[in-house]
């Protein structure tokens, strides 16, 4: 353990005296703790050693008002050069695994199927993986975490069905190069954000506002690309590599605003439009029936000859069904869901296709992110819903965490982890939900997409004003290290 970490450990013990409702039972032996980052958010080196441009490079450079303070990921945490130091931090924490993502355009600069591979990019990830393995930390790799090669966007990006072929080429390259050491793969991180924010609301790169139209095409391609990568793994790599492949969708928890059947149905519909839009397809081969029915019907009312929600063929349904080895969830927050009068049927948007009112309880603690309130019990409800809805699978929490505006004495972050982890443990021990992994977001303060460097999620502070990008542990780092070592959330466990 580093001296810095020891100092903050002592500090946190002295300063952190808050009453907690957290359980004093311990996590089972099989349960694994990890922590996550993503390529564009931490790597920097945006144009070094042959890396191609991606949609976030492009957006930040061509439209600097898109991101707060004109921030960009050109240097970010400089993890491209500082990966050994990052692995040292992971070791200090004692995590069993590190979830990180690959930069597609670092590996295949143009992204296109059949186009040249950048050996320096392959080498970077080989070195990172080797450093992890040498330190006893398991790599868990996200193949795509939002940084699409810009060339592929110029071909239309995800709404263009050709993207399936480009992704298949990329997936094969990474399984081939890294699959001896990597046993846990995630194809797409938060596909909802790629499609809904990227092509629907336009709040993420590439920034298109085509709600209820291009975003549905995006999802259609993305699901096929996922299934394709899964089958490639299954047929060409699984026999030797023996790993696990899944998709990594997200949703907030939607709590029914009341016991009324209408509000219960509204909450379920919101979950299906967020999580089910992706995972019902992966699990059962198709979109949730409530999405199909509503969008088909509304499209018809709007005078479309065919539904705005694309159709999978019978053959595609069979191909997509069951393409997962685990169920993953990125979960941060909760909202109430309430039934609502049908709005103007002529409005073309995802929001009006869903047609649910959401609101929050103003007493829920606010984080530094407008969308993120601290609602620990929501995670337990969500884990129960996943377990019930998808037939009691093994579940990984692949992201969970909270933002503040900075500072090393991050007692609100400690509170967040303690209470959310307590709800994970209660889901396991009291509700019989098979959760086997928990991944904190994030190792480092990093590039928080359209919020730039203003919202901090890290257990380690990064000084972005210093070209060396020094890392300093926060109190939450020592809290998490302690939880991992003791498998216990409070001062004493039974
Ligand atoms: C995850 O997104 C991401 O995987 C990760 O990269 C990110 O850093 C982390 O969590 C923290 O945000 O601006 O009102 O339109 C979490 C879910 C969903 C949160 C989209 C931000 C945008 C809300 N994200 N949301 S808004």
Task: Provide a descriptive summary of the structure in words.
The two termini are 26 Å apart. The strands form four sheets. Strands 5-4-3-2-1-13-12-7 form an eight-stranded parallel sheet. A three-stranded mixed sheet has the order 6-8-9. Helix 10 packs across helix 11. The protein is α/β, with parallel strands linked by helices and 494 residues long. The protein has 17 helices and 15 strands. Bound molecules: ligand GBH. Residues 38, 41, 189-190, 193, 197, 203, 250, 330, 332, 370-371, 399, 441, 448, 457 line the site of ligand GBH. The active site is at residue 399.
Alpha plus pi helix count: 17
Shape summary: globular
How are the strands ordered across the major sheet?
5-4-3-2-1-13-12-7
| Ligand types | ligand GBH
Give the percentage of residues in beta strands: 5-15%
| Quaternary organization | single chain
Q: Kindly state the mean pLDDT as a whole number?
A: 96
Number of strands: 15
Unreliable segments of 5+ consecutive residues: 13-17
Described by strand count, sense and barrel closure, the largest sheet is: 8 strands, parallel
The end-to-end span amounts to 26 Å
Helix content: 40-55%
CA radius of gyration = 22 Å
- What structural category do the secondary elements indicate? alpha/beta
EC number: 3.2.1.21
GO molecular function, one term: beta-glucosidase activity
Signal peptide: 1-21
Active site: 399 (nucleophile)
